[in-house]
Amino acid sequence: MNDTFTSNEIHGGTSTEVLKRSFLDNLSYRQAKFPAVATTYDHYMALAYTVRDRIMQHWLQSASTYYEQSVRSLCYLSAEFLLGPHLGNNLVNLGMESETRQAMLELGLDLDRLLAEEEEPGLGNGGLGRLAACYLDSLASLQIPAIGYGIRYEFGIFDQELKDGWQVERTDKWLRYGNPWEVARPEITFTVGFGGSVREQVDSAGNYQVEWVPDRHVMGMAYDTLIGGYGVPTANLLRLWQAQASESFDFQLFNVGDYQGAVLEKIASENISKVLYPNDEALQGKVLRLQQQYFFTSCALQDMIRIYLQRSSQLGNLHEKFTVQLNDTHPAIGVAELMRLLIDQHAMPWELAWEITRRTFAYTNHTLLPEALERWSVELLGRLLPRHLQIILEINRRHLEGVRKRYPGDEERASRLSLIEEQGSRAVRMAHLACVGSYSINGVAELHSRLLRDEVLRDFHDLTPEKFHNVTNGVTPRRFMLLANPRLSALITHAIGDGWIRDLDQLHRLEPLADDAAFRAEWRVVKRAVKEDLAEKVQQRTGISVDPESLFDVQVKRFHEYKRQHLNLLHILSLYFQIKDNPAADVTPRTFLFAGKAAPGYQMAKLIIKLINSVGEVVNGDSDVNGRLRVAFFPDFNVKNGQWIYPAADLSEQISTAGKEASGTGNMKLSMNGALTIGTLDGANIEIRDHVGPENFFCFGMTVEEVASLQAAGYDPGSLVRDNADLSRIMHRLSDGTFSRGDTELFRPLVENLQYHDPFFVLADFSSYVERQREVSAAFQDREVWTQKSILNVARMGHFSSDRSIRDYCREIWQIDAIQPNGFNSKFKP
Ligand SMILES: *Cc1c(COP(=O)(O)O)cnc(C)c1O
Which residues are reported to carry the modification N6-(pyridoxal phosphate)lysine (predicted)? Predict the structure, then answer.
């Protein structure tokens, strides 16, 4: 083997020869193994280090360019980043997959086996965390200077197993065998205080001063993960904070002889970054959760100020060099924290600090569900963060003064706009803090942004309409097309070139090919092959064999009543009883595939998972059905499994109650991979339908307005059951033990909830859904027309690239420009 590589080549080269050499070096010197005893995991680690070095070169160059040019940067603050496996994605973005595959082959290794070794960092629950990850990919690919800030949870989202059809949670020990993608930065550590008291004093010059004396300190240490862009020599940082005990503090207890107490304190401190809260779209008002939020937000803002002060001596222009996007209200305490840092630590007057703060933050709202809007009790917040409560109350005093000046005598409006909820026990409304403390407020789809303006944040819209924006979510086509679906990507590239990967609107060039019978045939060959791959995985993971010829009807997402997996189930049952009535009925064979996790404490969601498995057991084993319907639950839905499932779908189920799903992004991933959607007019479904054309989208159900008027008129789900024979049989059979081995109690909570309450209007949309599903079945019989619609879906999904979302943010909100790293000497020519 050639032994004359330069250091630059060893760490940055992408030829097969140099890759082999770097890989073997890493196996020896980083993984500490000789080839005869190295395991597949060692090989994965050695390759991961090899790839990381290549991104490292890009990052060093990007970071030094940002530093030299003192650029304006984005800080994206998010309590969650649901990244998915790194290795495959980095190979794709670096454009070195085939060289790497070859290098591994020449060493007797199979790249796919190494890829399968990676344990994904599940540092998020679902859509919100995955959005943050898609945005990191697009920011780097568009060469926008950015840092993602979050928490390095030791335990990410739990792993889901199924036992007798029930969800069982297992801890996610993703760091068990080490994480080759991160760089520990013990030198980048900040102190974060909690509790204690506030002392007010007047200094010798007569200035009023406040000193917060916390009674506990926790250290936050940085761990950096490099995020490389696609086809560009740019890499940005994802900086995650891990909590560590502060030495000075244990020392005090230690000195008074309380060794045990000191150790317990240490454990308590380190608990802050121990585990991700597994609730999606519902808050748990736990003090540890607030500690997590404040912990990472404070570290991020202190780091931002540190970086700023490398190039400047005073903080008056902080907002010109940094803008901070708040991914939901989880980091909204940052508004008070930046005020505190500027006023208490950097001796800035309130007015100037407020001016900077207001011009620094921008806020993204992610939910309209009232149970998901964060409120912290004044008592709890005051105990944990007394100085912040003081600052929040002062922000509120000034804010309400302005409100009263503008709307004299309108006390109701003032109380609606207040940062403090006065009814019941007093609480801080984090969304209001975020609105007042930022220069931009955005929703994540057109409908959602409209509902924010007209309903949830209406008074804020009246007050400052210029702050309001919409940025419809997007997903990265690199991970969810190129990486997850290489067959379809190759077909597309063969047809229209590879420009679509960086400019997804170019998919429009596929439109004329929808009318080309030969292209449609190739499209079907690809879909068929991808479905075969998934069928094999389903067999492996569930033991259920599914027919790749059947319609793959897919609903994969977190389990939540508003997402209405149970509506999908009612349709399955309707088809099942149709077959039981007439086994000779002509039904389009379907495979119903579900996947998703339920929050561990969310009993109704867990019961719906059990019901899916119970219905599957009956339907799959019924000889009258004879394989025409299959119901499978794919366990442990995460990014890795999603990459198997999304490409193989024929039909995408996006059936939330109108007005409840802020945007959705699973809807985008599926349509981009050629699934047709059956969906409500909710979230981004509406925009997807507008783009792909209503004739290529199966729309059903009530609109937001119809839901509201039904609600107002008094909704009686029981009458719908009585008036619909199909529905009354289904409801009856759900409670008579048919699907529960004779147990008539098991599903009662679910059935009764639907009969007597049905808070998400499942029964109200049932008929419309079943009717539209009949059209789906008929449409799938004509494969030529179906394929045409599938191609047109993909061709018209360019708008839903996260690159477009990031461009929208840059142009309308952040005012940040792309930067080329200078002096780059690799195959990536700026
Ligand atoms: C995209 C994605 C989601 C979001 O799905 P929705 O259908 O928009 O709710 C959740 N989890 C994972 C793993 C994802 O990749």
Answer: 669
Nearest CA to ligand 1 atom 9: 557
Per-residue pLDDT at 2: 54
The CB of 630 under 6 Å from ligand 1? The reply is no
User: What is the average pLDDT score of the chain?
Assistant: 96
729 alpha carbon to ligand 1 midpoint, in Å? 33
Q: Are 457 and 433 in contact (CB under 8 A)?
A: no
Q: What is the DSSP string of 643-700?
A: HHHGGG-SEEEE-PPTTT-S--SHHHHHHHTT-EEEE-S-TTHHHHHHHH-GGGSEE-
Conformational region of residue 129, where left means phi above 0, alpha means psi within -120 to 50, and beta covers everything else: alpha
Angle between helical axes of 40-69 and 97-106 (0-180°, round to 10): 150
- Catalytic, out of 366, 478, 610, 789: 366
pLDDT at 247 > cutoff 80 = no
Atom 12 in ligand 1: residue holding the nearest Cα: 126
Distance 43 CA to ligand 1 centre (A): 30
Render pLDDT for 673-725 as a digit per residue (tens, 0 to 9): 999 999 999 999 999 999 999 999 999 999 999 999 999 999 999 999 999 99
665 as an active site residue: the answer is yes
Pick the catalytic residue: 640, 669, 772, 796? 669
User: What are the chain's domains?
Assistant: 1-69+93-119 (no CATH), 70-85+120-473 (3.40.50.2000), 477-800 (3.40.50.2000)
Q: Among 62-76, 270-284, 420-434, where is mean pLDDT lowest?
A: 270-284
Q: Cα angle vertex 185, ends 180, 189, to 5°? A: 145
Atom 6 (ligand 1): residue with closest C-alpha?
666
pTM given for the model: 0.97
- Catalytic residue, candidates 558, 630, 796, 804: 558
pLDDT category, 202, cuts 50, 70, 90? confident
Task: For residue 596, give the ligand 1 atom closest to its CA.
Answer: 11
Q: What percent of the chain has pLDDT over 70?
A: 98
User: Given pLDDT bands bounded at 50, 70 and 90, which one contains residue 518?
Assistant: very high
